[in-house]
Amino acid sequence: MKLHRLLLVGAAALMLTGTARAGDHHTGLTLRCADCHVMHFSQSHGYLGAGPNTTFLGTGPNEYLLRAPINDLCLSCHDQDSSAPDVLGAANGGNGPTDVRLAGYLNRLGLEGIPATGHTLDSTETAPGSDAMTPWSNPDGLNCADCHHQHGYGGGSNAYRNLLSNVGNSGFLGSLVTYNDTQIGTVDPTKDVFERQAAEYDEADMDWNEPDNNASAIGDFCGGCHENFHGSPGDLTTVGGVASGTNWDKFLRHPTAGVNIGALGGGHSSLGVYNSKTNQVKVMSENAGWDAVSFSADDATPTCVSCHKAHGNGNAYGLILRSGVGTLTVDGDTGATNSSTGAVMEHLCGQCHVQAAAFVGVP
């Protein structure tokens, strides 16, 4: 049986006034204890008019008085349930079935997808690019609360999508990923995310600001587990004991902050190529450049989620194979999928880099 929430009039009113937080259902008036916790695991009926009318329990009893093991509990609403975003598997049966899902979709061991295509629930494997053995919060493997705060506090403040600020396993403290939670639809350049509509999950409903043009809050977040993939020019994150991007050049891995498309010169990347794309991968902007006809000079900065879906998708490593033309998909777009050159990966590189764009043809 699916776990159903009781929709409160007060919560609906918050949505209408524009103060509901984007994606943060588990907070304020929508934070309903009995959705996830049960005092006695022998419960045999719902709460009638006083709460969620469900007896969903699963196996247990469980730690923290949870109704079911954490991944099962989260997926009771977030997999094929029209009351919430669907985050597992390619089939989207959630509350936005036509969404090009911003974070893509998760895998789960033995159930959905191939582990190499993104984050895999229950996996105990070491995270790619991690120096530590097990970055997960429990020996049962990756669970939703390794990245999201289950109560919506995001580490003590309002965080985009309930993202934590202390993911990972080596004492890494990232930045809180902030957004315009009290002014949905209004650009606040001091916040990392611009949300156009409350509680929406389609990638068209948000864009990335760049409050610090030498850093990326979402890059810091990802770096909590993927330490060796994380960095900006001259920072202290190392690969093989060597800093990446010393003197703003000779990168040992792709920068996640600090370098704008076309800023280095020498043919490495081209803002003209990027601006020519109808379907652009998302980059950060300090001047709301994504809301203009095209980005201006030195105002388009790629970061981790420019190339990868945070949850994953149907491609290796959750890559967004996007040519710039055709219909948008969670995997990229139909222009890349139907590439006549067969060079699908190069379409993603060709979003910014002149060499790849020349190889596949600039749309």
What does this structure look like?
With 363 residues, the chain is mainly α. It has nine helices and seven strands. The strands form three sheets. It has a three-stranded mixed beta sheet, with no helix packed on it. The longest helix is centred in the first third of the chain and has 9 residues. It is globular and about 65 Å long. The N and C termini lie far apart (48 Å). 44% of the residues are buried. The N terminus is likely disordered.
Bulk shape: globular
Q: Order of helices and strands, N to C?
A: HHHEEEEHEEHEHHHH
Output the structural class: mainly alpha
Q: Name the beta content range.
A: under 5%
Q: What's the number of extended β-strand segments? A: 7
Mean pLDDT: 81
Number of helices: 9
| Main beta sheet | 3 strands, mixed
Helical residues, percent: 10-25%
Q: What's the arrangement of strands in the largest beta sheet?
A: 3-4-7
Oligomer: single chain
Provide the gyration radius in Å: 21 Å
Low-confidence stretches: 1-23
